[in-house]
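Quick start: read one record
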Amino acid sequence: MSRPSQLDEKRDELLPIVATAFAELGYRRATTAELARRCGVRENILYRIWSDKRHMFIAAIGYVFELSRQIWDELLADGNGETTPAERLLDHESRHLGEFGHYRIVFAGLSETDDPEIRAALADMYRQYQRFVRERIAEHRDVREDGEVPDAGLAAWGVVGLGTVASITRELGLVSERQRRRLFRAVGRALLDGAQP
């Protein structure tokens, strides 16, 4: 097996820092000089890894999903057998959704969707979230063939949307943390079980 290149190792080391900077500053306010300062490197090092600021931001968008996926995989590997993976994810996200602030990267990206590459990166990230959630919902429902139950794919989009709403309420202080948890658990559970509106 070939050894990862030093550039790949440096990218893996710097990407969390770059993502945090974009989460805090947004796309437009994050200069490459500031990104380099936070990374403790010269700007030319960043340009060896990414061709420009846009590609740094696109990498940060991908990082949002990859970090979630890593956390979720660890959570699901430690299953207790008493709850389904979907139930464990719902419980975890009701308590931890947004705690890293990476949703701000997504929000910043939504104001940049006139850029086709940023738009494509966001669409890909949302599709990955939806696919992962859809698979967990389908497992949870044990492939119920009940025509009354909404499609797991549509329910997964509902859960993704619920995460967005929960992030907005966090960002704007619209509801308390306790209320946000209750919102995520109650609505998430209804979507998970296929409750009819």
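The domain at 60-193 is CATH 1.10.357 (Tetracycline Repressor; domain 2).
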